[in-house]
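Dear colleagues,

For the upcoming journal club I promised to circulate an example of a predicted protein-ligand complex. I picked one with adenosine-5'-diphosphate because it came up in last month's discussion. The inputs are reproduced below in full, followed by the predicted structure.
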Amino acid sequence: MEKVSDYFGCMVFDDCVMRSMLSEEVYHSMKKTIAQGAKLDIGVANAVASAMKDWAVAKGATHYTHWFQPMTGITAEKHDSFITSAPDGRVIMEFSGKELIKGEPDASSFPSGGLRATFEARGYTAWDPTSYAFIKDKTLCIPTAFCSYAGEALDKKTPLLRSMEALNRQALRVLRLFGQNHVKCVRTAVGVEQEYFLIDKKMYQKRKDLMFTGRTLFGAKPPKGQELDDHYFGVIQPRVAAYMQDLNQELWKLGILAKTEHNEVAPAQHELAPIYTTTNIATDHNQLTMEMMQKVADRHGLVCLLHEKPFAGVNGSGKHNNWSISTDTGVNLLSPGETPYENAQFLLFLCAVIKAVDDYQDLLRISVATAGNDLRLGAHEAPPAIVSIFLGDELQAILDALEADVPYNEIKKTTMKLGVDVLPKFPKDTTDRNRTSPFAFTGNKFEFRMVGSADSIACANVMLNSAVAESLKIFADTLEQAQDFETALQELIRKTIREHKRILFQGNGYDAAWIEEATNVRHLCNYRTTPDCIPHMLDKKNVAMLTEHSVYSEIELRSRYEILLENYCKTVMIEANTMVDMSRKEILPAITKYLYAMAKTAKAKQEMDTAIPCSYEKEVIQTLSRLSDEIFAQTKALEQSLLHLPTIPTICAQANTIRDAVLVQMRQLRVACDEAERITAKEFWAFPTYADLLFSV
Ligand code: ADP
Ligand code: MG
């Protein structure tokens, strides 16, 4: 077999390819654009386009596409071939700088939340040169942003790039105060741990709920679930191992640094993590990874489920967003330093994150809000819907000492003075043993654990970057005015800790006592569902912050508010319709059939000899008859609610009704159906059970 180093990145138009295929002048212009966002002129674009085309055609590509990330949460592409007719009637392969820079897909069917009036259906895609082009399915894919003609963002990439720029601007101001004049650029980097389930395709195809909604809407608890914890880090099944190997190869060809993989807690659950990279690229790579996971699964007769809660009663899937801030000179600003001065800088950036997470906890919650993730957050194995920060005992103790201006006893008997003392070195390991925290410091990065497994990581990082940019801006405003930098710095850090320590929590985030304390004593936000939190996106302070840093315009925010609620409503409505369908066409008929068989048996027994006992048949007939009546009534009630929904005037009211009525009815219907499943003979039940699905591979 080929060596990984021989084919790694072979489908990517990366730095190495550019250096070999572009003239020195063009290459340097490109580099400058990638590193510093400098504008490209059309001459350079033409040269790059031509080289891209030659490279792609040599690799067998016939088409190109502007690859973008509309608000549907998945990626979109519209393929055009390179073919142009030549005067002699034959064809030549062409690709111009203009075609590289800008595309015009018909945008009318992508969600815009009212941004694009129907008469102006056009939007355009614009090349993002900071993310490399790549080949997928014989098509050259060019990562692009997607905007309306008025320039409003219709996608997830544009705000992400803007938020990275906002953080860059403010972080540079702060670094200048520390005399770091040589730093040209500050970027955030992300490594995403992606969880997923793998099940057998034949089983999947017998379950309408999985096919239409990505999760099971029915299913009695199997005799064995995850009780024994025997799956976590367990031996990987040969079939799964073959899948992972194949997947790794596909990802490596695309230059994605897939690195670790292991079994997760639930049966059939696994995880894949790449090596971290610049946030924008990590986001593109995560989208590609999710796509490849599903494609490769299909080749192995498997289905990859990315839904946050495919199965009730076993762990759901999330995506851990490991996030750090670094300079172009290679310094991780969230890493405690070697010198007192570096440590003061570290503490200031740490405080910026603490303040950001406290001030904008609502935005972080909103950034992970989907109907699917609502089923996971707050369940006992996932972080609660309340945002809090875990720092680890040692760092927490240091902050406590700084705030109180008292000695930090464990390490030193003297009061810590910034700029004088070196922080004690704390081993990375001791900081990451709290798996219940939604936002944990893990040595030199923060791990945001609330992101849903199916979601793009863009939104979470947009909010995180923007909120931290805002803290840094406030810090820079204060410190730039200071007479005595060190005293002002010390005071600022102390003040920040004092004002925001309520967000710091070292205990068990799954504990009911924490929910109580967080909500009633610390007054942290506890938005349990999507309709609870989304309206807060338009709170004055949030709009002010996001527009101030030019991450979103107010119009864009309003459109996103609409789209997010619309997605929520549509998702649940599809689920409810699927339930009605399965109930009427599969579950009720299955029960009736079994009832008939039982009744026939009972009757035959009685005819033979009335003395033959038949309490088993009678009880099953009793119970199933009651349940089928219940199921029938509940199905009709759900149908009624679904008919009523379109008459509700606003999307917000619709979402609230779904939360308070439709989802409640769905849960009730499920309880009755699951009970019926438990007492119906296996051969009569309409579709594969949890045991079939979870232990199918
Ligand atoms: P775990 O949480 O399982 O202990 P690791 O420490 O191996 O995992 O890291 C998980 C993810 O964090 C990986 O994708 C890794 O590349 C990423 N990561 C590591 N260091 C950083 C960093 N400085 N910034 C951002 N991500 C990082
Ligand atoms: Mg982790």
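Two points we might discuss: The two ends are 26 Å apart (CA to CA). The chain is about 50% helix and 10% strand.

See you all on Thursday,
B. R.
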